[in-house]
Amino acid sequence: MYKPIKTVQTKENNTITLYETINKNFDKTILIIGVFHGEEPQGEYLINEFLKTDLNGIKNKLLIIPCLNPDGKNRNQRQNSNGIDLNRNFPTKNWEKTEKKEYYGGESPASEIETKFMTEVLNDNKIDAILSIHAPFRVVNYDGPAEELAEKISKITGYKVQKDIGYPTPGSFGNYAGVERKIPTITLELPEDETNETLWIQNKDVFKYLAFEY
C-alpha cells in the first residue's frame, strides 16, 4: 500500500526513507514525520503501527518519514551525530548561531544531511498539511494556518492546543514549513509517561483522520 520513493544515508551510514502511499487518485498530500529528536522515538512506533493498518479507500496521499534522525536515535540523544538539533537547523529568517548546547543549530542553516533531506521533500512535493511527532509535553502545537486542524486533533487525543511551546525556536521546522511556507504544520507532543501501546490507542485516530477525512 506504500513504497519508498526517496532515501539518504546519514553520517553514520543509517538510512532515512521517505515512503509514499500508492493511490493514484487523491485529494490532499499529508507529510508525517517521526523522530526529529533521537530521544523521542515514540513517533516511529506510532507510524509503523499505522502502516500495518488497512489503507483501502484512503482519501489523501501520505508521505511518511518514520525516523528522520536514526543516528540520534541510536545514541539516545536529541541531536544528530554532529551534535546538532535538527529542529534548529532549518534555513529560516530567524535562524541564528547559538552556543554549542542542547539546542545548537549548527554553524550554518541547512548544514545537515537530515535537514537537506527535509527541505528537498518540501521543494519536490505540494504538501497540504504536516504532522511532526515529538515528546514530552502532551500538547498539540501548531505553526502556520493550522489552528482548525490543531483543534480537531485536540478533540481526538484529549491533548490541549498550545500555540506557543514556551521558549524561542529559531531555525525550527515549524517556522520553516508553517510560518514561512504557510503549510498547516502540527507538532504533536506526546506524553513521555505512557507506553507506546497506550500512545497508539490515544493517537491512532489522528492518523486515520489525516488519511481518510482531512
- The overall pLDDT, averaged over residues, is 96
SSE string, helices as H and strands as E: EEEHEHHEEHEHEH
**Largest sheet, if any?**
8 strands, mixed
From the spread of the alpha carbons, the general shape counts as globular
Query: N-to-C terminal Cα separation, in Å?
Result: 19 Å
| Residue runs with pLDDT of under 50 for 5 or more positions | none
Would you tell me which CATH topology applies? Aminopeptidase
Number of strands: 8
Rg over C-alpha atoms, rounded to the nearest angstrom: 16 Å
What count of structural domains?
A: 1
CATH level 4 superfamily: Zn peptidases
Number of helices: 6
Q: What is the helix content?
A: 25-40%
- Provide the structure class: alpha/beta
Query: Beta fraction of the residues?
Result: 15-25%
CATH architecture term = 3-Layer(aba) Sandwich
**Biggest sheet, spatial arrangement of strands:** 1-2-4-3-5-8-6-7
For the record, the CATH class is: Alpha Beta
Give a verbal description of the structure:
With 214 residues, the chain is of the alpha/beta class. It has one domain: Zn peptidases (Aminopeptidase). It has helices at residues 42-51, 70-75, 113-124, 147-157, 173-179, 196-212, and strands at residues 2-9, 15-21, 29-34, 61-65, 129-134, 139-143, 160-161, 185-189. Strands 1-2-4-3-5-8-6-7 form an eight-stranded mixed β-sheet, with helices on both faces. Helix 4 links the parallel strand 6 (139-143) and strand 7. Helix 1 (42-51) crosses helix 6. It is globular. The two termini are 19 Å apart. The model has no long low-confidence stretch (mean pLDDT 96).
